[in-house]
């Protein structure tokens, strides 16, 4: 059985982003990423500053139950890029056996067959401000394979160039539910008051930008709800 490198397991909390925002959920955060986004708010998963533990699917479920008790029925797998890890197949199977709903956060750069078994797949291609380059052929392939599944696209926006990129992505996959997310420009600060004000200003800017865009007529615009509530605190 292939083990999974786990950085943190936490919850219950609420899903603060995207297609099931507000959903009560546990989080399993894996380590390692094939990207290195300039503004990554979870850089400790890949920049060498965090410590991960290799765990079996059984051990992960055990820890979820130890921390969450009976107070959860939904698990979100994030990272890093969880799609790096074949071993997640066993975790998804085990959670399904226990009638626990699953969701995933991934950037759409790597395919895994177990993606077909996840209840809510969020694919978050990266805009130019990240300094990453989207492999559109790969993204096409992944979205095609998931075409009859419950998926969404979520693009984080920091500036006008990012917004143009988001329009291009939404036009390329018009049938996939589309979410715009406010970028957090300071994912390290502990000054929650200033951060909150800045994020709300950026949210207002992003809403105005969306209102002015015909391409975004059916898009949804969201903040990171957990960041508004708890700032850059980890494990929430
Ligand atoms: C940390 S990533 C992990 C999953 C996967 N690697 C990905 O990027 O989709 C989870 C989500 O947080 C978003 N994110 C990362 N840094 C952010 C920031 N500074 N502001 C807003 N969203 C951010 C990512 O775009 C992604 O949608
Ligand atoms: N509450 C909460 N919601 C989230 N949605 C996506 C997250 C992530 O880091 O992938 C995240 C997170 O870290 N916490
Ligand atoms: S793809 Fe996700 S985890 Fe990887 S660097 Fe970018 S935001 Fe961070
Ligand atoms: Mg996060």
From TrEMBL:
Pfam hit, one: Radical_SAM
Residues reported in the UniProt entry to bind [4Fe-4S] cluster: 33, 37, 40
Binding site for substrate: 14-16, 29, 78
Cofactor requirement: Mg(2+); S-adenosyl-L-methionine; [4Fe-4S] cluster
Enzyme class, first EC level, given as a word: lyase
Binding site for Mg(2+): 42
One Gene Ontology molecular-function label: S-adenosyl-L-methionine binding
UniProt-listed Enzyme Commission number(s): 4.3.99.3
A biological process term (GO) from this entry: tRNA queuosine(34) biosynthetic process
Pathway listed: Purine metabolism; 7-cyano-7-deazaguanine biosynthesis
Catalytic activity line of the entry: 6-carboxy-5,6,7,8-tetrahydropterin + H(+) = 7-carboxy-7-carbaguanine + NH4(+)
Ranges where the Radical SAM core domain occurs: 20-232
Top-level taxonomic group: Bacteria
InterPro entries linked: 7-CO-7-deazaguanine_synth-like, Aldolase_TIM, Deazaguanine_synth, rSAM, rSAM_sf
Cofactor note: Binds 1 S-adenosyl-L-methionine per subunit.
PROSITE patterns in alphabetical order: RADICAL_SAM
Family in the record: Belongs to the radical SAM superfamily. 7-carboxy-7-deazaguanine synthase family.
Function, in words: Catalyzes the complex heterocyclic radical-mediated conversion of 6-carboxy-5,6,7,8-tetrahydropterin (CPH4) to 7-carboxy-7-deazaguanine (CDG), a step common to the biosynthetic pathways of all 7-deazapurine-containing compounds.
Assembly information from the UniProt record: Homodimer.
Name of the protein described by the UniProt record: 7-carboxy-7-deazaguanine synthase
Record gene name: queE
């Amino acid at each position: 059985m292939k083990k999974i490198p786990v950085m943190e397991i936490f919850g219950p909390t609420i899903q603060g982003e995207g297609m099931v925002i507000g959903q009560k959920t546990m989080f399993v955060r894996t380590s390692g990423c094939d990207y290195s986004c300039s503004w990554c708010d979870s850089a400790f998963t890949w920049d060498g500053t965090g410590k991960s533990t290799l765990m079996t699917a059984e051990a992960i479920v055990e820890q979820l139950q130890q921390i969450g008790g009976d107070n959860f029925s939904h698990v979100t797998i994030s990272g890093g890029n969880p799609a790096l890890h074949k071993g997640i197949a066993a975790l998804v199977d085990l959670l399904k056996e226990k009638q626990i709903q699953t969701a995933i956060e991934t950037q759409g750069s790597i395919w895994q067959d177990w993606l077909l078994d996840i209840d809510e797949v969020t694919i978050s291609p990266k805009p130019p401000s990240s300094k990453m380059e989207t492999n559109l052929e790969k993204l096409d392939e992944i979205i095609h394979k998931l075409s009859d599944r419950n998926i969404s696209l979520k693009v984080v926006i920091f500036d006008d160039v990012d917004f143009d990129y988001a329009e291009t992505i939404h036009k390329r996959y018009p049938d996939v539910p589309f979410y715009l997310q406010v970028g957090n420009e300071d994912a390290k600060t502990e000054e929650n008051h200033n951060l909150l004000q800045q994020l709300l200003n950026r949210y207002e800017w992003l809403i105005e930008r969306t209102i002015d865009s015909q391409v975004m007529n059916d898009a949804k615009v969201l903040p990171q709800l957990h960041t508004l509530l708890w700032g850059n605190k980890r494990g929430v």
